[in-house]
Amino acid sequence: MKYCLLLLFGLFAAIAHAQTTFSISFPDAQSKVALDGRVLLILAKTNKSEPRFQVSDGVETAQLFGIDVNALKPSQPAIIDASVFGYPKRSLNDLAPGDYYVQAVLHKYETFKRKDGHTVKLAMDRGEGQNWRIAPGNLFSKPQKISIKAKVKQGITVIMDQAIPPIPEPKDTKYVKHIKIQSKLLTEFWGRPMFLGAHVLIPAGFDEHPEARYPLCIFHGHFPSDFSGFSETPPPANMDTTDYSKRFHIYGYKKIVAQEAYDFYKKWTSKDFPRMLIIEIQHANPYYDDSYAVNSENLGPYGDAIMHELLPEIEKRFRGIGQGWARFTYGGSTGGWEALAAQVFYPDEFNGCFAACPDPIAFDAYTVFNLYKDKNAYYSEGPFRRTPRPGQRNYLGQMQWTVEETNHRELVVGTHNRSGDQFDIWEAVFSPVGADGYPKRVWNKLTGEIDPTVAAYWREHYDLMHILKRDWKTLGPKVTGKIHIYCGDMDNYFLNNAVYLMEDFLKSVKNPPASSEVTYGDRAEHCWNGDPTQPNHISRLRYNTMYVDKIMKRIEESAPKGADLKSWRY
Asked: Residues spanned by CATH 2.60.40 within the chain?
């Protein structure tokens, strides 16, 4: 009887809250043809910004629901009701009655017929860096205020009658040039034209010294809209400094960033600064804002395309030396992982990597859990309880959100790894292709249960520490003296955990010894990159100058006999 009463109570509660439905459509003025994609409905409690810009992992996030649509016709409604999975509340049933600001977005997908025989629907990047909020061509509605009433049947109509405009291409300047090539390898894989690009910072005196050939540094990182951290003009003296950085707890950070960019320009053009090329690669793709610069079953041969198509073209066009002793790579976070991965997977092509706060470089410490031994990514489980795993902490160690919360947000933004966010891209890069053509899940996205067979695939193909251990006999002689890793011991995403394991390995390995460098920033957060003399909010802006002395020393020690060490030192 008690069980029956509980069921009835639950049924009555559902009836009281399940009466609201949203009917979302677009007019033929926006598209006369049917569209594929993901319809996202956002409900916010404030109008401080559009609801789409209030979705985050933070505790103050807006509410989000999403459904896939295939061949949605103009004026045809997509229905979001209490059965649709949401974040952070799982159902419309869970929303309290009250006023909300509502907005809908259609994140458009296109169909790819890949070389491997699979047909998939994905959101191709359109110059925005895989961000559904601002992706050109996406449809959206103007925010509207609504009121959800308890025990009242409501049907709310939302019309996506707006479209996000294109993003203009960056323009060349005296020192910053832009290059874009169609990749034969990626075009063949994806079954449609695919491009790689780069922002190239050329040295002072480039035109005046046509005989000079230059070393090249790849500054790896997330999608760069243009070359970052370089400005030929100083910030205005009266620049507003009332902006507050929650991350670094200081006012006026925008001016600090602008000043650092100008200071870099002055160093770059100074008489004694080494002349070299620095490039930031554009390799946004249908899954993320970059490819992780490796070959992948799901993303295609991005590693080879970058190394064998893009770099040779850049070095040809901008007079790069084009040999491994004169190439270096560095970056932070995603870029830190890419810097180390490029050195590991292409050991002869680079003479040093500087990996700051890298994404997990050992999956035994995949942020806060062991991917090979733990059974669940979201919870530490015992016989009588389970504890949520933290996903992010602040500088005091206080948890901001959990691994489960981040993954559930991604799941609502896009099924089949189509969120364009962090855990989804790790899966897309590291996993084998599933039977449906999309990446195999390394864990159940809803429950967190880990699939050990997929984890084993990750280990053999992308666990950088495991690969170094496994192949040290052949890799060791090629990477000794080249590996430099830096990480704050209070990294917000617990990335220091994997660095500790890598450090232990690099210290212990013999024949040859690694001759590596691993250092930590005391109480430093994410993006600490190796300078203990500066606070994190400054050092993170100096990637392009921090490692120059070490690069020059490495060149002097390792350049082959007869190498050009003079034409670029004017």
From this structure: 20-163
Within 13 Å and on the Cβ side, how many CA atoms surround 193?
Answer: 4
What integer pLDDT is reported at residue 395 of this predicted model?
85
Is 528:491 a contact under the CB 8 Å cutoff?
A: yes
Query: What average pLDDT does the segment 120-132 reach?
Result: 96
**Whole-number average pLDDT of the chain:** 95
pLDDT higher than 80, residue 10: no
Are 347 and 478 a contacting pair, CB within 8 Å? yes
Residue 235 backbone dihedrals phi, psi, to 5 degrees: -65, 145
pLDDT at 98 over 90: yes
8 A C-beta contact, residue 536 and residue 524: yes
From residue 453, alpha-carbon distances to 116, 374, 431, 459 in Å are: 21, 13, 10, 10
Q: What CATH number is given for 20-163 in this structure?
A: 2.60.40
Show Cβ contacts of residue 388 under 8 Å, excluding neighbours closer than 6 positions: 378, 379, 402, 403, 404
Whose CA is closest to 300, among 423, 118, 36? 118
Q: What is the mean pLDDT of residues 264-281?
A: 97
Measure the CA–CA gap between 316 and 342, rounded to whole angstroms.
21
Domain span(s) for CATH 3.40.50.1820 in the chain: 176-230+242-362+475-558
pLDDT of residue 248: 87
- Report the C-alpha gap between 569 and 209 in whole angstroms: 10
pLDDT tens for 361-413 read: 999 999 999 999 999 999 999 999 999 999 999 988 999 999 999 999 999 99
Q: Strand 244-245 and strand 250-251: pairing?
A: antiparallel
* pLDDT surpasses 50 at 6: no
Statement: 176-230+242-362+475-558 belongs to CATH 1.10.150.50: no
The span from the CA of 323 to the CA of 563, in Å, is 10
pLDDT band at 19 (very low <50, low <70, confident <90, very high): confident
Please provide the DSSP assignment of 119-146 as one string.
Answer: EEEE----SSSS-TTT-TT-EE---EEE
Rounded to whole angstroms, the Cα distance separating 508 from 504 reads 6
Do residues 498 and 465 make contact, with C-beta atoms less than 8 angstroms apart? yes
240 alpha-carbon distance from chain centroid? 30
pLDDT at position 13: 44
- Beta strands 162-163 and 216-220 are unpaired
Question: Averaged over 199-206, what is the pLDDT?
Answer: 98
- What is the share, in percent, of the chain residues with pLDDT greater than 70? 97
Distance of CA 236 to the CA centre of its chain: 32
**Within a 10 A sphere around the Cβ of 2, how many other Cβ atoms?**
6
The burial class, CB within 10 Å (0-12 / 13-18 / 19+), for 170 is middle
HEC-encoded secondary structure of 83-118:
CCCEECCCCHHHCCCEEEEEEEEEEEEEEEECCCCC
Mean pLDDT of 356-361: 98
- For residue 7, the model assigns a pLDDT of 41
Closest C-alpha to 180, from 25, 297, 7, 314: 314
